Amino acid sequence: MTLRKIKTNNTPAFNSYILICLLQMMNILTIALIVNFFLKINTNTNRNTAIYMGIAMITALYSVNYFHLYVRRELISEQYKDMPPKRRTKGQIYFWLYVVLSVIIFFTLGINLVTPKY
Question: Looking at the predicted structure, is the pLDDT value of residue 79 above 90?
Fold first, then answer.
């Protein structure tokens, strides 16, 4: 709903869809970093394998979100259209907290848990 208020934004639903997919992928990779750190999994994969695995993961995530969220965007928008302002403000605070914490945790763990092999 907030993205609709920006006059230059002519595709707010698609932008939201991309942002949600990006944040979910960061959360999945954060969990993978934590699991790899505690279980000491040996992940000696070459660059091409990592690229293909990333493409497969993001394609699966985009597909699930497309059919679950983007196709139903009008229904979801109508559901939250008449939300009380107090609840809308609380939801926006939670959303931005989720965005900021997801990015901070992902990059902090990525820097500290992934040790280069010299």
Answer: no
CB-side exposure of 110: number of CA atoms within 13 Å?
11
pTM score, whole prediction: 0.78
Based on C-alpha coordinates, what's the Rg of the chain? 18
Question: Token pair for residue 75?
Answer: 């229904």
Quick check: 9 and 3 in contact, CB under 8 A? Answer: yes
DSSP H or E segment with residue 20: helix 12-39
Q: To the nearest 10°, the Cα dihedral for 88, 91, 97, 99? A: -100
> CA end-to-end span of the chain, whole Å?
48
Residue with tokens 């505690």: 38
Residue 59 in contact with residue 100, Cβ under 8 Å? no
The structure tokens listed for 57 are 């993961």
Cβ neighbors of 43 (< 8 A, separation 6 or more) are 36
- State the pLDDT at residue 41: 78
Cα 18 to Cα 46, 62, 107: the distances in Å are 28, 8, 19
